[in-house]
Specification:
The complex is a heterodimer of chains A (about 425) and B (about 290). Chain A is α/β, with parallel strands linked by helices and about 425 residues long. Chain A is about 25% helix and about 30% strand. In chain A, the strands form four sheets. Chain A has a six-stranded mixed beta sheet with strand order 5-6-7-3-8-9, with helices on both faces. Chain B has one domain. Chain B has twelve helices and one strand, in the order βαααααααααααα. The radius of gyration of chain B is 22 Å and the shape is globular. Classes of the chains: A alpha/beta (about 425), B mainly alpha (about 290). Chains A and B meet through β1, α3, β4 and α4 of A and β1, α2, α5 and α12 of B. β4 of chain A pairs antiparallel with β1 of chain B, so a sheet runs across the interface.
Chain lengths: ~425, ~290
């Protein structure tokens, strides 16, 4: 049992969200209610039922029966859409809030980093804030004193250490906040989205520090929307959906589960009623068909083959004079690999005023063998009219294009370009 | 709040057939009244120090006259009281010059009223901390009350200067002064705990505090002497307002007024301690919702 760092059993969290509106029947009702409601609330309060007093009746399960175990030294990525319960889970594990039911056992000192620079006071200097923030994060004064120079060097704020933080640039403030947190030495580190802030150089530095921490054999629970960061840092991934744990396992499988969750690889998909239409869109995209050059519907292609996407458009009564159809391909960890826009080729206006079909021939597909999800958007001039994600997925299969049988060497990077290798002189001669 | 159980104190983990490692933390929903976790509070004493220090450091930043505010408020009040109550209304003052009679009461009163106000709004003011990091929440109102000590000392220095001016020598009872300050602090914290926890959910509290302190001030013998009440039983009951004990105690210890506050002090101390204990338990009971509703 000694190798478990965190054990979570049936953890659930119910949130109360706002008042349930009751329709008033008559003016007299509403008037009496206005008079009696405060008394009812006070009565509720006296009975110790604070929620009733605050009139919070609507509830939502932010987490529902989540169970898992994290082994010591494991680096686990927790992913999921907004509102899936990731932050709630971290808040419970870091004891900021209490679960409604279930329990968690944590075997080790926990350091939680849910925000960079928590408790920084703008009027205090960098030096003072390091001590304050360190104390808030649970470091002793001795510990902070010992690591002080290291923290300042990491944050690169030596010159401004005695300047009030309110005069810092936002980047400096973030660096200082992260620097303090990075010098925490907990056995179990809980990190929420802190890498999403700051410039690229800062993010790189944070990521570097994070992998250093992970490399020291500490247990890390890491929430991020940055799939590349999750892929490079984590060994295992938990996917949360609507408060439930949907997937636990190996990082690559988890990421592809998350990216392609609900994506079924079909060669003809109805887009009109698709669940992954982005919000506030006008449904114009009607159907996507994927086929081979021969016209035969398929979603599997060998390296070098031609992929044909056909997009059916139903503009209804609207007329789009400067239409563009755009097809995006995303890899297994959700990175956009390429975006094919019809207005790159059709610089003239593409007028769509009735049902129409636009096709795109992607010739000689050279993507690294694997699965790619497809998104389609429809724009008119500068406006995005419609956008549907995760419509289907296509598989690119390795193909022995050089006739050498070395197909397994094609699986790194993003693309497999057409190349010719040889001694420089000979190649130059033969071309 | 979550029931935090240190590995060395845990007793309630069901024992399985194989010996199970005891968790460092056991997170589960708490029910009803929960323990105060004073031991954990002690572990976080450095944070208490830093938050108090921050409050002191930041309080008079970006003000022109700075810490002089700590003196100005009670002194101005004393002048106004001396003119209206002492001068015009000829309020009795136990044989002590009225200005020093009222100022000796205003010094602990200001400490109490400030601490009360600061503590009551402290949780709401620290919502960003409460939502992002765990520590015993009791530290927040506690540091608010404690940060008033510096202001108190400044105002107290003025009191000493005034005593020199009026030629008043403190009695030997001055040794009780620290305990009287502690009593003011306990009262302030006790009320502050109740109000700060209520304020998280009901922002009504914010509007109640100015009234409360105003009424309370007139219920406390600040502008008038407690000796106006002649019946000794009623005067002892008057001590149910702990600030009565504090204020009369200050006058007794420093100015040598003969209203020896024996029974009053006892009643006041008991009331204050009850306030503190009930406040602390109520606070701990409500604590589990703080991060969700603040």
């Amino acid at each position: 049992m000694g190798d478990i760092a965190v054990r979570v059993e049936n953890l659930s969290k119910l949130y109360r969200i706002g008042a349930k509106q009751e329709g008033y029947k008559t003016f007299r009702d509403s008037l009496t209610d206005a008079v009696t409601a405060p008394f009812k609330r006070v009565a509720g309060l006296l009975r110790g039922n604070a929620a009733a007093a605050a009139n919070l009746n609507e509830t939502i399960w932010a987490l529902k029966d989540v169970s898992f175990e994290v082994k010591k030294g494991e680096v686990v990525g927790i992913i999921g859409r907004n509102g899936a319960g990731k932050s709630t889970l971290l808040k419970i594990l870091s004891r900021i809030t209490e679960p409604t039911s279930g329990e968690a056992k944590v075997y080790g000192r926990v350091g939680a980093l849910l925000e960079v620079g928590t408790g920084f006071h703008p009027e205090l200097t960098g030096r003072e804030n390091i001590y304050l923030n360190g104390a808030i994060l649970g470091m002793s004064r001795e510990e902070i004193k010992r690591k002080f120079d290291e923290i300042v060097a990491f944050a690169e704020v030596e010159k401004f250490i005695d300047t009030p933080v309110k005069h810092y640039s936002s980047g400096m403030g973030l660096r200082l906040g992260f620097a303090v947190a990075a010098h925490l030495e907990p056995e179990i580190l809980i990190v929420d989205e802190v890498l999403a802030v700051g410039d690229v150089a800062f993010q790189k530095k944070c990521l570097g520090k994070m992998s250093e921490v992970a490399g020291e054999g500490r247990t890390v629970l890491f929430v991020s929307h940055n799939m590349a960061a999750v892929e490079s840092l984590c060994q295992r991934v938990y996917v949360l959906e609507n408060g439930s744990l949907m997937f636990t396992g190996d990082v690559l499988k988890g990421l592809s589960y998350y990216v392609s969750a609900g994506v079924i690889s079909q060669d003809s998909v109805d887009m009109l009623n698709h669940q992954d239409r982005r919000s506030a869109m006008t449904p114009v995209l009607a159907r996507l068909r994927v086929s081979a050059d021969s016209g035969l519907g398929t979603t599997s292609f060998r390296l070098g083959e031609t992929v044909v996407f056909t997009v059916d458009i139903d503009p209804g009564t609207a007329v789009y004079a400067f239409a563009s159809v755009n097809i995006g391909l995303y890899n297994h960890i959700g990175q956009l690999i390429c975006k094919m826009k019809s207005n790159i080729q059709f610089t003239e206006e593409l007028r769509i005023s009735s049902r129409d079909s636009i096709s795109c021939h992607l010739e000689d597909i050279r993507l690294v063998p694997g699965e790619y999800t497809v998104a389609v958007s429809f724009t008119n001039g500068k406006d995005v009219i419609d956008w549907v994600d995760k419509i289907t997925s296509i598989q690119v299969l390795a193909s022995d294009i050089y006739g050498t049988g070395q197909t397994e060497r094609m699986n790194t990077g993003y693309i497999v370009p057409r190349v010719t290798w040889g001694r420089a002189e000979e190649v130059a001669k033969s071309r | 709040m979550q029931t935090l159980t240190e590995a060395d104190t845990i007793a309630s983990i069901p024992s399985t057939s194989q010996p199970e490692e005891q968790p460092y933390l056991h997170i589960k929903p708490s029910k009803g009244w929960v323990s105060l976790q004073l031991r954990e509070l002690w572990k976080y004493r450095e944070l208490l120090y830093f938050l108090t220090w921050r409050d002191i450091k930041v309080r008079y930043k970006q003000t022109v006259i700075g810490a002089a505010w700590a003196i100005l408020q009670p002194v101005m009040t004393m002048i106004v009281f001396s003119i209206f109550f002492g001068g015009l209304a000829k309020m009795p003052s136990d044989g002590v010059p009225y200005p020093i009679f009222s100022y000796a009461a205003l010094v602990p009163w200001t400490f109490f009223a400030h601490g009360l106000g600061q503590a009551s709004n402290s949780l709401v003011g620290s919502s960003n901390l409460i939502k992002k990091i765990y520590f015993p929440r009791l530290i927040i109102p506690l540091s608010s009350v404690m940060s008033g000590v510096i202001d108190f000392l400044l105002a107290f220095a003025v009191l000493i200067v005034m005593m020199l001016m009026f030629g008043i020598v403190p009695t030997v009872n001055v040794i009780w002064l620290p305990l009287l300050v502690l009593l003011a602090m306990v009262t302030s914290l006790g009320i502050g705990l109740w109000l700060s926890a209520l304020n998280v959910e009901f922002r009504d509290i914010r509007y109640i505090i100015p009234f409360l302190t105003q009424f309370w001030m007139f219920l406390t013998p600040i502008v008038y002497p407690a000796s106006l009440i002649e019946n000794p039983t009623i005067r002892a009951l008057y001590g149910l307002n702990p600030m009565t004990g504090v204020v009369e105690g200050f006058r007794w210890a420093l100015l040598g007024t003969d209203t020896a506050p024996g029974a009053v002090i006892l009643v006041s101390s008991t009331a204050a301690v009850l306030l503190l204990i009930s406040g602390a338990f109520y606070f701990r009971r409500m604590e589990k919702n703080f991060a969700d509703v603040v």
